[in-house]
Design goal:
This protein has 199 residues and is mainly alpha-helical. The protein is built from 8 helices and 3 strands; from the N terminus they run ααααααβββαα.
Length: 199
Amino acid sequence: MTTSEKLQKIRRREGLTQEQFAEKIGVSRQALSKWESGDALPDAVNLMSISRIFNVSIDRLLNDSLDLDEPAPEPSKPQGERVSEWSKIGKKLICRVAGAIMMAVSALIIIVMSVYASVTGATWVEDVASGVSGNHFSGIVGDGVTVRVSTGLKALLYEYNLWWFFWLLIVFAAAGAVVCALPEIKKLWGKRKILRGRN
């Protein structure tokens, strides 16, 4: 079906005369008559008006192989594009799994350390004034001495000097969160570049 036939079909379907149809899209009746007879084609602005007013895609208006009422065929994607989509999905999945593993391992080690500290009853005592500290009270507590007592995970970290390891686990978990969110970060960064390019 040609564009001219499609224009006639739209006009008849809407129950409009040539004058009414032309008035709706803002052209003369003579211009519409030329379009319907196939002597001329609407320009881009008029095609957009027809598309918007009568809810018909421009592609459907111009493509002779498409009827007005048939659903548009799905364009088949070339093999390379399909492979590319799968590789994108694979990369996102790998990022998410790797990030989740990094966070889970860090959390698991911290939980194991906390449980161990609770089971062993780890205690760390520190003389606030002198800075003397240890995992027991002897030699620290005396008259007029103020002490700070830590128990649980904190005591374990002091006792075995594992603060460096604890912060390493926190950094590892944070890196896991970043790796997990990397596909979304890239997408947002790309949108930011596009928006910056428009300004």
